[in-house]
Amino acid sequence: MKIKSIARLQEIKSGKLKNLVKNNRLLLDGSHNEDGSRVLNEYLQTLDCKKHVVIGMMANKDHEKYISYFKDISSLTTIDIPGQPNSLSGKDLKEKFKSIPKVEYKKSIKQAIESIPLEENDLVIITGSLYLAGEMLNLN
User: Fold this and answer.
1) What's the pTM?
2) Would residue 15 be called left, alpha or beta, if left means φ above 0 and alpha means ψ between -120 and 50 degrees?
3) Domains of the chain and CATH, by start
């Protein structure tokens, strides 16, 4: 009951990036493999809102398998993970996800959030890598 798990369905309630989503929810989840994606998406399916996913991943992951669990998402934005030479560029990740409608690429977390056409009660979730989670927490 008292466990606080950083970057695991962590709701960001204040900070610079939270201010960009205004009254909408901002979640951070460092899941980066098939099991993490499956569990994350089981949770997302319980929410009645539009879900906007911002994702960056390391090159050695099974990107297609990871994203295959995401159902019912309103938008998907791939991004670069700065300072991580073993990450897959957001442009290359977008190419791997080209079969998904509405996939976009933005260079940074901030640009990705700003590009999402948010409506009331929407959710933005940043996921795909613990390195990305750390970057997001530092930026916020």
Assistant:
1) 0.94
2) left
3) 10-139 (3.90.190.20)
Answer whether 21's CB lies under 8 Å from 110's CB: no
Spatial neighbors of 61 by CB under 8 A, at least 6 apart, are 32, 33, 88, 128
- pLDDT for the residue 117: 94
Average pLDDT by stretches of 10, the chain with 140 residues: 80 96 96 94 96 97 95 95 96 93 94 97 97 95
Residue 99: partners with Cβ closer than 8 Å, 6 or more residues away? none
The Cα-based distances of 94 to 26, 56, 78, 103 in angstroms read 22, 10, 6, 7
pLDDT at 99: 86
138 vs 140: CA distance, rounded Å? 6
Q: Report strand pairing: 103-105 vs 25-29.
A: unpaired
